[in-house]
Amino acid sequence: MTDTDKSDQQTGSAIDLIENVTFDEISIGQSASLSRALGKADIELFATVSGDVNPAHLDEDFASGEMFRRVIGHGMWGGSLVSAVLGTLLPGPGTIYLGQDFRFRRPVGIGDVITATVTAREKRPEKNIVIFDCTCTNQDGKDVITGTAEVIAPTHKVRRQRVALPEVQVIRQDGYKQLLAKCADLPAVATAVVYPVDEEALRGAIEGLDAGLITPTLIGPEAEIRAAAAGAQLDLARCRIVTASNPRTAAAAAVDMVHAGEAAALMRGSIDVDHLMNVIVRPGAKGLRTEGHISHVYVMLVPTYPRLLLITDGFVNIAPTLAEKAEICQNAIDLAHIIGIPQPRVALLAAISEIKPHFRSTVEAAAIAKMADRDQIRGAILDGPLILDHALSDEAVQEAKAGWPRSEVAGRADILVVPDLESGNLIARQFSSMTHADAAGIVMGAQVPIIMTNRPNNIRTRLASCALASLVIASGYHKAALD
Fold first, then answer.
1. Does domain 293-444 have CATH number 3.40.718.10?
2. Cβ burial 220-254 (10 Å sphere, 16+ → b, else e)
3. In 374-458, which residue ranges form alpha helices assigned H by DSSP?
4. Angle at which helices 40-50 and 75-88 pack, to 10 degrees?
5. How many CB atoms lie within 10 A of CB 282?
6. What angle do the packed helices 273-280 and 247-259 form, to 10 degrees?
């Protein structure tokens, strides 16, 4: 035994230690087992590591038409349990795998509990080889795998601290499909794309066209648009191009198309947000203002959060007043209704979850919550002030200090209303960078929806943003805004 082994033996608890069974200690008929339940995440992780993306394991629609009528686990997932027994229990650390013979008897489905057992059948002293019978049985005691394994067993005792495994999260990027599915039967939206003179802007328009979500009109300098399309190998044959020499004239032309009934939505291209919004908020026929307040809403598709998460306003209103925040809040609630959240839970964010007169954000959050109590903001459950942790994490709420008020919003917010643009943009970008969230974006409160996201984007955020515009138009919201 090495000095390290001795140290581990002295300091480690039984549950933290892993110990082998040497060749001399193994007796014929000796066995060891472990059990694991197969979950969807196990299948996806195994597919990710192995590269085996057979749709029988991953595609429910495909699997329902196959022999077993359901998604089944990879056969070698069960086989890996046998390897785990051999490598950690019997013989354990120091074992060298020589060969394996498996027969797969039954499929393993999600929720099945599989017990892998190895039993020593034969010992060959000349090379310290042990032959094991191997079985994997399900929760009904039926064999799913049978076979044999041949290993070289260790000859010296090993007792070591068990290695702590990293935590693994399965991050799925398919939340946007929920939004696309809602648009399946909706017509494509005539959309004015403002100044799309780079690849990303053009790709968003073409992807929306290919998905049947929008019919884009590209507004900008035609030569630059065509050059960008050629560089990105994008086909513009199905797109109308309206010539505009610069970003401001392109934005003005897009507004004119809306007033002429030629466009039902706008999409930001390569134009700066300030330039686009300056044109949109102009009064009368020169802009797209309504009686309501214009604000931006992120619809975050966060893989680690169990629902869609709306954040407002992190894009348009820099330092909104209390009255403006109330309208920003109502815009987000209206969008939540449109995308299928009938009574959203709204968290009014601040630096602390207590009302402190010297913290303006806490006072305004409390005032907005009271406005909702008096039906000045409708269609949602509001609470604030709340810090971000208390808004999103039920665990953080449970750990909060005694006497801290509980609410229906804390720990499960659908909408985050931020104190100002800076904090909203930072939160949205943090979700995108730290949790791999997709951030669809739309401007509400104008005469037509305006598709607007942070850049750079990916196809998921671009399509989800187009889907938001389609749903807003189908709801009749923009017509109500005019009234």
1. yes
2. bbeeebbebbeeeebebeebebbebeebbbbbbbb
3. 388-392, 394-399, 421-434
4. 90
5. 15
6. 40
Burial of residue 433, with CB atoms counted within 10 A of its CB: 0-12 exposed, 13-18 middle, 19 or more buried: exposed
> pLDDT tens across 265-304, in order?
999 999 999 999 999 999 888 899 998 899 999 999 888 8
CATH 3.10.129.10 maps onto the chain at 3-161
Has residue 348 got a pLDDT over 60?
Answer: yes
Q: What angle do CA 32, 33, 38 make, to 5 degrees?
A: 165
Place of tokens 């907005």: 368
- Class level of CATH domain 3-161: alpha beta
Q: What is the largest CA-CA distance in the chain?
A: 95
CB 43 within 8 A of CB 58: yes
CB 384 within 8 Å of CB 369: yes
> Measuring CA to CA, which residue among 262, 200, 199 is closest to residue 231?
199
d(CA 294, CA 335): 13
Q: Residue 90: CB partners within 8 Å, gap ≥ 6?
A: 21, 26, 30, 31, 32, 118, 120, 132
Cβ atoms of 197 and 224 closer than 8 Å: yes
Q: What is the CATH number of domain 175-292+459-467?
A: 3.40.718.10
- CA dist., res. 371 & res. 366, Å (int): 9
Burial class of residue 368 (count of CB atoms within 10 Å of its CB; 0-12, 13-18, 19+): buried
Q: Is the pTM of this model over 0.70?
A: yes
* Confidence band of 456 (pLDDT split at 50, 70, 90): low
Helix (H) or strand (E) holding 253: helix 247-259
| Of 207, 56, 29, residue with least CA distance to 131 | 29
Interacting residues of 245 by C-beta distance below 8 A, sequence separation 6+: 221
Structure tokens at 261: 């009934």
Whats the size of the chain, residue-wise? 483
Residue the block writes with tokens 């189908």: 474
Task: Measure the CA–CA gap between 122 and 125, rounded to whole angstroms.
Answer: 10
Which amino acid is it at 349?
A: L
The DSSP code sequence of 52-87 is ---HHHH-HHHHHTSTTSS-B--HHHHHHHHHHHHH
Lowest mean pLDDT among 82-86, 196-200, 335-339: 196-200
For the chain, where do the domains classified as CATH 3.40.718.10 start and end?
175-292+459-467, 293-444
Contacts of 362 (CB under 8 A, 6+ apart): 350, 351, 352, 354, 355, 356, 384, 385
- Kindly report, residue by residue over 24-35, the tens digit of the pLDDT: 999 999 999 999
Phi then psi for residue 438, to 5 deg, are -95, 140
